[in-house]
Each structure stands twice: as structure tokens, then as C-alpha cells.
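okkk here we go again. third time trying to get the 2-acetamido-2-deoxy-beta-D-glucopyranose bound version out, last two times i messed up the smiles copy paste (missing a bracket lol). double checked this time i swear
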Amino acid sequence: MKYFVQVLFLIIIDGISFLVETKAGVVLQNDFAKLVRCDESFIKFTSFKFYKKSRTFAALNVTYTTFQDITSDEHVRLKVSAWQLRGNEFKKTVVDFSMGICTLYKANKFGALSLIKDSNLTGCPFPKDVYYINDMAPTSDVLPPFFPEGKWMLQLNFFNNGKVITEVQWMMTILKQL
Ligand SMILES: *[C@@H]1O[C@H](CO)[C@@H](O)[C@H](O)[C@H]1NC(C)=O
Ligand SMILES: *[C@@H]1O[C@H](CO)[C@@H](O)[C@H](O)[C@H]1NC(C)=O
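finally!!
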């Protein structure tokens, strides 16, 4: 009932467009993104801005400089771990995997290309340079089926030679539509 009221409220606020963006009755609401750490000998963020575009849509804009060419999966890997809020604590779940950044890009895994459509990334390879990515906002399309509703934290760790070069925490809420 609580979610029904919440979803109904969102639909009233944002009209039909909000419904069209969702898949399989699941809504992904992006709550917050935080840059936890980064290795400035490899990559430096000059801007990291999570902002609310509208009542129901929030996104991340970043600009960063890389100091090494990224040419293969061995160079940079992304490890994703999903933590779910239970009680008032985030608990690690079984959703935990890792993938080379070039495969992520080339095979368009998890809608990677739609996440970076407003960017000047044209890799892989990604030569060392300045890059921007605007309006990054995952939708429910990136989720595996039957992803449970609730508050979630995605821990995104980018690794180079087993060392974390960037860690981002992405907070989101999964809502089920009735
Ligand atoms: C990406 O855009 C930034 C800022 O406009 C620019 O400085 C940089 O050279 C561009 N990088 C590439 C690879 O085109
Ligand atoms: C983020 O990028 C979008 C698209 O370029 C722009 O419209 C928006 O104003 C930017 N937001 C912030 C907070 O920089």
C-alpha cells in the first residue's frame, strides 16, 4: 500500500513519461552518488556533480583527466557489489561481479552506452585525455530481473593492477509498480 501511494504520487507528478521509462513494472530512482576515493596518479576528477533534474529524475555529471592510456580489459576492471538496506544497515548481497572496461564498452553491457551517451568517450582504447560524461542516470533497464525493491547501494570499484583507482557509491531506490 505504501509503495502504491508512492508510485501513484510519482505518476501524478510526472505524467505518462515517467511510466514509459520503466520496464517490467520496476522503477529505479537514483538518490545520490558519491566519489569515495580516487588515485590521482591515474585519474583526477575535476568535477563530480550529482544533481536533481526534476522531481523524479536525478543524474551525475563528471569531468576527469586520465594520465594513462587504457587499451585493454587488463588495464581497468570494474567491480560492482550491491548492498541492500536492511534495518538501518547496508548488507552485502550476492550481486557482485567484475568486468574489464573495454568489454563493458564494446559489448554494451548493462546499457553502458546509454549511460554515457552524453560524453566524449569514443573508446576502447581510451587514450589519456580529459573526458566529460553528463546526465548519467541508470534506469530499471540495467537491472537483472526480479531485483528486490528497497534501498540499495552500488559500490563501483575501478581497479588497475589490483589497486583501486576510483571508488563510487551509488545510492538508489527500487520501487515496484502495481
Ligand atoms: C573531451 O572534452 C573535453 C572538454 O570539452 C576536452 O578538453 C577533451 O579534449 C575531449 N576529449 C576527447 C578525447 O575528445
Ligand atoms: C549536467 O549536464 C547537463 C547536460 O549537459 C546540463 O544540462 C546540466 O546543467 C548539468 N548539471 C550540472 C549540475 O552541472
